[in-house]
Specification:
Layout: E1 2-6, H1 11-22, E2 26-31, E3 42-45, H2 51-58, E4 65-68, H3 74-84, E5 91-94, H4 121-140, E6 144-149, E7 152-153, H5 170-177, E8 181-184, E9 190-192, E10 194-195, H6 196-206, E11 216-219, E12 224-226, H7 227-237, E13 245-248, H8 250-256, H9 261-268, H10 277-282, H11 292-304, H12 314-338
Parallel strand pairs: 1-2, 1-4, 2-3, 4-5, 5-6, 6-11, 7-10, 8-13
Antiparallel strand pairs: 9-12
Helix pairs in contact: 1-6, 3-4, 7-11
C-alpha cells in the first residue's frame, strides 16, 4: 500500500509513521522541512499550502491513502481536494475530539455527540473542515475519512492541563523545584489522555478500508483518570513525592490568562470519557495498552536523557506566578472579609 503522510514527523504522526513502516507499507512524508525523515520513508519537500510547490513535489502520482495531520481550516481542505481529486483512494483528515459539545450533555462521548464548541476557534475550524469534507464526499465522491484524537502524547510531550505545549517540561521543572503548579477546578474531573503508540494502532488499522469512507472515528485510550491523578503520576515519574498542587477554578484561570480559554473551557475543564466501540468494529485488534503512569515515565526518561530537551518556557512561568499571586491575594481578601 502506498501512503502519503502530510506531516509525518510530529507527536501523533511519528508514531503512525513508525507503525505503518513496521507493517510493510510504503510511506512517503510531505513537509516543508528538508531534514531527513524517518528511516525507511521517502521524503518530499514542499509547502503544502503553496499549490504550485505541492504539485511540483507530488507530480501525477496516485496514492492508496493520504493521511493529513496538518489541515486546520477550510482553506487547507479546499487545497487538499484540489490537489488529490482523482488521485487518492482514501483521504484521512485528523480532526479533534475537542470539537465535541462543551460541556457534553451525556457520557461517554460517541461519534454522534454533537459538534459544537463555543469556546475555541481551533475546534470550530476543525468542525468546519469536517463539514467541507462531507460536502465534497456528497458532491464529488471525494473519499474522506474523519479521525478525532483527544489529547495525545508521546516521549516528547508532558500532557497536563495547565502547561506550555511547546516546552512541556516546564511544569515538571516547577515540580522538581518545589514551585506550585496549577490544576484546573478541584482536580476531580475525569479525563482521557492517549499515548501516541495506541492512537497509531487505530489509525493505521483504518488505512485502505473502503468501508470507512464517509465515517468519523474517535481513537482514544479507555483509561479515565482525574486531573489530580494525572498530575500525581507525572510527579511520581519525575521523582517528586509531594508536588505543590494549587487548585484554581477554570473561570478564574481563563479570566487572568485569556489565551487558555480554548484549552480549558473549550476542552479540559469538562469530563471527557470516550466510547471506542466504533473504531473497534472497524479495527478489531485495536486496544490501548499504555497506562498513563507507564507512558509518562517514558516521557520523563526521554527528557532526562538529554539536558537540551529540558527547555523552559519563561513567559509561561511568569504568567503562572502572576496568576498564583492574584489567587493568593483573593484568598487573603476573602479571609479578611469573611474570617
Amino acid at each position: 500500500m502506498n501512503l502519503l503522510f502530510i506531516g509525518g514527523t510530529g507527536n501523533i504522526s511519528t508514531a503512525c509513521t513508525q507503525l505503518a513502516l513496521s507493517r510493510g507499507y510504503n510511506v512517503t512524508l510531505l513537509n516543508r522541512s528538508k531534514r531527513v525523515g524517518l528511516p525507511g520513508t521517502e521524503q518530499l519537500t514542499a509547502d503544502i499550502s503553496d499549490r504550485a510547490s505541492a504539485e511540483a513535489a507530488l507530480g501525477k502520482r496516485h496514492w492508496d491513502v493520504v493521511v493529513d495531520f496538518i489541515a486546520f481550516n477550510t482553506e487547507d481542505i479546499d487545497r487538499r481536494i484540489a490537489l488529490f481529486r482523482g488521485k487518492v483512494g482514501q483521504y484521512i483528515f485528523l480532526s479533534s475530539a475537542s470539537a465535541y459539545q462543551k460541556p457534553a450533555t451525556k457520557s461517554p462521548i460517541t461519534e454522534s455527540t454533537p459538534l459544537v464548541n463555543p469556546f475555541w476557534q481551533y475546534s470550530r475550524d476543525k468542525i468546519a473542515c469536517e463539514e467541507r469534507l462531507l460536502s465534497a464526499l456528497r458532491d464529488e465522491a471525494f473519499p474522506a475519512v474523519i479521525v478525532r484524537p483527544s489529547l495525545t502524547y508521546g516521549d516528547t510531550i508532558v500532557p497536563l492541563a495547565v502547561n506550555s505545549w511547546a516546552k512541556s517540561f516546564t511544569v515538571v521543572d516547577r515540580m522538581r523545584r518545589g514551585v506550585p503548579v496549577i490544576v484546573p477546578g478541584d482536580g476531580l474531573t475525569l479525563w482521557t489522555i492517549t499515548h501516541n503508540s495506541d492512537f497509531a494502532k487505530g489509525l493505521v488499522g483504518l488505512l485502505g478500508q473502503e468501508r470507512a469512507i464517509g465515517e468519523a472515528f474517535q481513537i482514544t485510550s479507555d483509561e479515565a483518570l482525574t486531573w489530580n491523578e494525572f498530575y500525581l503520576a507525572t510527579a511520581q515519574a519525575a521523582g517528586v513525592a509531594q508536588p505543590k498542587l494549587v487548585h484554581i477554578a477554570s473561570d478564574f484561570i481563563t479570566t487572568c490568562l485569556p489565551e487558555t480559554l480554548g484549552t480549558l473551557l473549550g476542552d479540559k475543564s469538562y469530563t471527557a470519557i470516550f466510547d471506542n466501540s466504533k473504531i473497534r468494529s472497524f479495527v478489531p485488534d485495536f486496544q490501548a495498552t499504555t497506562r498513563f503512569r507507564d507512558g509518562i515515565a517514558r516521557t520523563i526518561a526521554w527528557f532526562d536523557a538529554d539536558e537540551r530537551r529540558r527547555q523552559i518556557d519563561d513567559a509561561a512561568n511568569a504568567n503562572w506566578d502572576k496568576l498564583l499571586a492574584a489567587y493568593d491575594r483573593g484568598l487573603q481578601q476573602a479571609l479578611r472579609d469573611f474570617g
